[in-house]
Each structure stands twice: as C-alpha cells, then as structure tokens.
Amino acid sequence: MAEHPGPVEGPLLAVEDLSVTFQHRGGPPTRAVDGVSFTVDPGEVVGIVGESGSGKSVTSMAVMGLLPARTSRVTGSARFDDRDLLRMPDAERSRLRGKEIAMVFQDPMSSLNPVLTVGLQITEVLQRHQQVGRAEAREQAVELLHRVGIPDPRRRVGEYPHQLSGGMRQRALIAVALACRPRLLICDEPTTALDVTIQAQVLELLRELVADLGTAMIMITHDLGVVAGLCDRVNVMYAGRVVESAGRRDLFAAPRHRYTEGLLASIPRLDAPRGEGLTPIPGTPRDTVGWDRACAFAPRCRHASDGCVRPDLALEPMAPRSGEVEHLVRCVHPAPVGAPEHLEGAR
Amino acid sequence: MSGTDGTGAGTSGREDVLLEVEDLRVHFPIRRGIVFDRTIGHVRAVDGVSLRIARGTTYGLVGESGCGKSTLGRALLRLNEPTSGRIVLDGTDVRALGREPLRRFRRRMQMVFQDPLSSLDPRQSVQSLLTEPLRVHGLDEADRGRLGGNGERAHVERAAELLEVVGLPRSALARYPHEFSGGQRQRIGIARAMVLNPELVVADEPVSALDVSVQAQVINLLEELQELLGLTYLVIAHDLAVVRHISDTIGVMYLGVIVEEAPSDALYEQPLHPYTLALMSAIPVPDPAVEDARERILLAGDLPSPANPPAGCRFHTRCPFAQERLCADTVPELREVAPGRRVACHWAEEIRDGRITAHRVDPDATVTADVRPGTSGPSGTDLDPLAVP
C-alpha cells in the first residue's frame, strides 16, 4: 500500500550512544538519558518502557529535536536513513518532521491547537509537505478522519478540538500524524490519558494502521500491558539507560534484568488468582546511584552484591530463548531462565 | 440494618453489614444565565445506587471517568451532599445527622485521596498534618489510656505510631510533604486517614498517581492495615486489575448506576454484564501469550452525557449485545442472578449461554441493530464474545 523510497537494508532509525544533560540555573547538571542505543527497522514496532524519570520521553524528544537548545545538551547520534537527526540543520529537520517522522503525544488537548479546526490542523501538514491545493487537502483530511474511525468525518473536519471527546481528539491527533504517511511514528504515552475501553480502541487503531501502512513505530509507555500486545521488540529503561532489550515474548516469558523481573512481579494482573500477594520493588525510583559508579538499580535490588558496584555496566547479549531478536541485559546477576517469579502464580 | 449498640452482630442475620446504601442519588444542577440563575438540567452523577459492605471486607468500585464512582464515594462521607437516598453506617443514618453530630461522626469514616500532593497541605509539617485530626476529634478512649491523656504529647506519640505502621521513620514528623516521594506521600495520606481509628475508609484511586514499581507497596500496605486494624474499605479505581486484587466484592459502575456486582473471583471468571465483558477485554495484560490469544470486545463511541443518559438500559447505545426488545425502553433492574451476584441486564443469561452474540455497533446510529437470539449481525464474525483467557 505505502511505497516508501529509501534503503531496504538496515534499520530505519539507529540511535547510538544518545545522552541528554539538562543544565538548571545554578544547579548541577542532570543527566536524563545516559548512553541509549537502539534501532528501529522499517515496519517494526519498538517499545520503550520505563517509569517517570527513566528518560523514555526525553529520548524521543531528543530524537525529534524538540529539546530546548539553551538548557539541554544532546550527544550521540540518531541516524534516520543515514542522515544524523542530531546534527542536521533546523530547516532540514523541519522538512522531515511531520512528513517522514511524526509524533503522537499523551495529551491531545494540549497538542492540538484549540483555536483551529481539526481539519485545518490536518490540511496544514498536507499543504506544507505535499503539493496539494486546499480543496484536495480538505478531501484528504476527511479521508484521514474516516480512516482513524471518527464518525461523520465531513462534519467533524470543521469542528474544534474542544468539541471532540478525549478518545476522538487522540484519533484526530493520530490523523494529523499520519497525514503524510510517515515512515516512523513516535507515540509517547498515547493512551495514558484515556479510559481503558477508549485505550483499547486507540491501540487497535494503531495496530491496524501500522500493519496497513507499513509504518515503523516507537511506543513509549509505562504500561507493560500495552507493550505486550503491540511491540515486536521492547527496551526497558531505568534511570536513563536501557537495562534490558528483547523480543516481547522473551521479555515477558523470561525477563533477565532484575528490574524487569521485579516490575512484572509487582503489577496486579487481571488474570492472576486473587489472594496471590504482590511482590513490590522496595524503595522508590529516586533511590539511585550514578551509572558511572554502579548499577543504578542496585539500591532497590534484592540480588545486589558488591559486584554490582562497578562503573559503566555493559549491555550484554544473553542467549535468546525463542530466537526472536537479540536479548540484551545490563545486569551482574541476571535472573535465571526458568519459571519467572511473576508467572508462577498465574500458571 | 445492624443494631444501634455499635456491635451490629446478630441483628443483621447473615452477615455483619457495616455500611448500607439505598437508592442513593447525587444530582448536580446545571445553571445558566447571568441575571436569573436558572437551573436548566441536572447531571445525574449517581442515579440510584444501592449496596452493602460487610464489616472487615473490601468493596471495590470500578468504572471509567465520569461514571460517578468518585462522587458516590464522596457522597457516602457527605463531602458531596446526596440528593436522595439512605446511607446507614453501623445503624446510624448518616444523612439524618445534623452539622455537629456529622462532624463528630466523621471520625468513623475517613478518606484516602488520589493525589497526596494536592490533598496534603504543603505548608504543614507531617506532624501537624497527622495531629490535626486529633486536635479536632481528640484521641480514642483506648488510646487516651495507653498514651496518657489527650494532650499534644499524646497526639504526637499517636502520629509517630501511625508513621511506623505505614513504614515511615519517626524523623519524618519534622518534614514537609514536598520532601517525600509520591509513594511516601501516599503513606502519609493513609496515616492521616487512619489516625482516628476509623471503621470505614473510602480510598479514591489510591495508587493511580504512583509509579508502577511503587503501586504494589501501597496496595500491600492497605491490605496489611486492614488486617491489623480490622478496617472496612471502599476502594474506588478505574483499574480493574488493582480492584480485583484487593476487593472481596466488586461493583461495576456505568453512567451513575451499578450495572454488575459480584464476588471478585466470580466477576473475573464469568462477567455477566456486557459492559463488564468489554471492560475486562480492554485491559491489557502484561503477557504476550494472553494478549495474542484474547479476543476483544471493542466498544463503539464514548460515554454518553450523564446529564442526558439514554433511556432504557444506559449502556444500550454502545452495547454489542443490545436487542430490539427491552433494551432501548425498559430500565433493567439490578437483579440477583446467583447468590451474591447482581446484574442489570435484561439478557444476561442469554449472553452467558451464548444465545445472543455480539454485533457491531455504529456509534452514530440511534437505533440498535436488529439481532435476534442465535443469529449474529452482518459483521458479527469478528466480534465474538470474549473468550477470557
């Protein structure tokens, strides 16, 4: 359906050693992202999972060039089609944004312009990036709204964001993002502000669109459940670094990093028998040490030992169980492959 | 209704009911006009809810935003004034209480709020926050004896005790809310609710503002406290997985009414109301094997306005099982279909036995599709009832 130019070989996006440091006035610099590397193949759905403060959103903002230059320092590279997004002139990046890479944010009310009609916000993108006239663009906008499942698109195209419900706004935002058929769609918590039944609608829509259009997608979320049903590959982030990267089947059936394992054991599952206790991760995400000294998760880890106090732990390959994709883990005491703790009760 | 002697046992027959709610309604007026403050309608946030909570158990209330679950929780404590109905806590009619008796009565029912950062005064130290309820209500008789009087020192002692119970050090007394992490702040919020030895605690989304890795700590804490202090909980949450984990009984709300009520396990094993089915099938499970295998019931459209709820069954406009008969014109009663199981659906048995299958719902259509028992709609093939994994 979608014919995309560009290389067939190799990843669509290759982020390498990406670091982001924020400089606060008067305060010490804060490293939000610390040497993150990952790739996204054409048509692939890659998940980035982490809690607030893990650096997952900052990673995507840095890739899109959306961080304020004055207070943030971005190093590393993000190659999209062999062009480095981080070293690109602003004008060139603007041409790419919205056309080849698009983004869907968490809160559609603050990412849609409240004083412009939904239709205008779609035609704006189309007219900017594609040589289409106004009437043609409007037709396409109606088509797009229809495609994302907004009922009565011909009427809705002339309405303002406040006239739409939360779920419809998010659909409209997805329509804006998809207007130019981007090759990469970055979704930052696209369903977190929505109710579960609406979330299910939007996730289903994204799943369909990605399959139909062959768009690659980065799904940033804190919800492991969302990732489990959607992503080909999952990167788990903690304190600014990727601590585990695996195919979704491997990750959930045999999590190797103690943080991933702990997270899965601490979530109440709908299908777990009642009375089954939860095993929380002790402490809070604030209890951390710098990666330059030790494993940042060590202060909260039940398996931590003196061996964990070593600078710059590497992300090392493990034997993948099902041979999906490479299974990488940054841990001194990775969990054994076997029945993981969180599944013992459920099975 | 349980006895007025405070123990309640023996007078209520089967179980020791602490809280009984009957046909509770909370309507908010919609006002228009500058000169004349006319009321042009009502948002029926809670529209006829009846429930009972047995002493020492947890009742979980789930539903999506706008279903009225928080309003119901607040109305039980008369933080929102109910429009009509009865609330009986341990033999006392809460709605009949005057201002001063109500204030005194409040020590028996407390609330834990969603966002501890906005429910705790940022300018008060933890000590001040925890002793404030004691300054208002005074210590419990038992605590007075144990801690020596009802003075400031005894209050601080009680506050320190509670901190320890919720897992914070005594040194936290001198600190302020902003110095704590989200999970710790929620612990303070919980300690504040517990300091008066309440019997009923209404927890409104107690964990949804917390980080995933911290949620389990707070859930476990609530469970420990219940065991330790013999508390009765009403837990309000949008996350059915959380509610299922801690509740004995679950009530599912939709547009101001309870559409299904069941023991926690039974509800999960066999949801009877179409809305519960849809809600359960929508919740992502962190397990690819389950996710790949399950079939979803996707609801069409959004929640209708609670100011103008649909006639008949409130869910019929979005219900994939809606029938031509009854659904659009007759309000389904919350009827008992099995011991402890109540459901407000005309066709619950037929749906359970597979005699009615799901059909597609057009969110814009006002008339539901014609689907007779045993036949599926034009596009019914991809919308089979959920096979719960």
Describe this structure in words.
Chain B: InterPro entries: AAA+_ATPase (IPR003593), ABC_transp_ATP-bind (IPR050319), ABC_transporter-like_ATP-bd (IPR003439), ABC_transporter-like_CS (IPR017871), Oligopep_ABC_C (IPR013563), P-loop_NTPase (IPR027417). The complex is a heterodimer of chains A (347) and B (389). Chain A has 347 residues and is of the alpha/beta class. Helices cover 30% and strands 20% of the residues of chain A. In chain A, helix 5 packs across helix 7 (166-178). The mean pLDDT of chain A is 87. Chain B has 389 residues and is α/β, with parallel strands linked by helices. Chain B has a domain at 270-361. Chain B has 13 helices and twelve strands. Mean pLDDT of chain B is 86; it is low at 1-13 and 365-389. Classes of the chains: A alpha/beta (347), B alpha/beta (389). The interface between A and B is large, with 53 and 51 residues.
